[in-house]
Design goal:
By secondary structure, the chain is mostly beta strands. It contains one helix and eight strands, in the order E-E-E-E-H-E-E-E-E. It is elongated, with a radius of gyration of 24 Å. The N and C termini lie far apart (49 Å).
Length: 171
Amino acid sequence: MANLNKVMIIGNLTADPEVRQTPRGTSLTELRLAVNRVSSGPNEGERREETTFLDVTCWGRTAEIAAQYLAKGRPVFIEGRLQQDTWEDKQTGQRRSRIRIIAENMQLLGGRDGAPQQGGGSYQQRPSGGYNNGGYSNGGGYQQRPQQQYQQRPQQTPPPMPAEEDDDIPF
């Protein structure tokens, strides 16, 4: 049976990104996102809003871009994978765990101050050969795509339909 570990979320940062460097000099940024879900309640016209808080870890160049361009309240699209962290609590001695998202692709949403905009910047990690810092190297670079402008073509009238006797289909 095949396995799949893929997550795609859009949420707003609940705090400014936390930036660190590993001993080898690789950037690591921790993000905390709030993802809202609106559903209808049991009564007609009733709306319920549910908020889920998620921890996201970015590595390498993605971490640097997140630290540079993201701030509390900014919307962001994250595509990545789930990872479970397990540790022993030093105070209680109990085994603890949590699930986090390891970002593999990030797209900035909204304008500079969080206002909506047409385009957005995106950055995607490239897998390296091994497991250095989450399995991703800091290859590639941030790329802001220019907005495309489309020109409307003048409408043309379609050619006339052929007469039945001109039809050369044999049935």
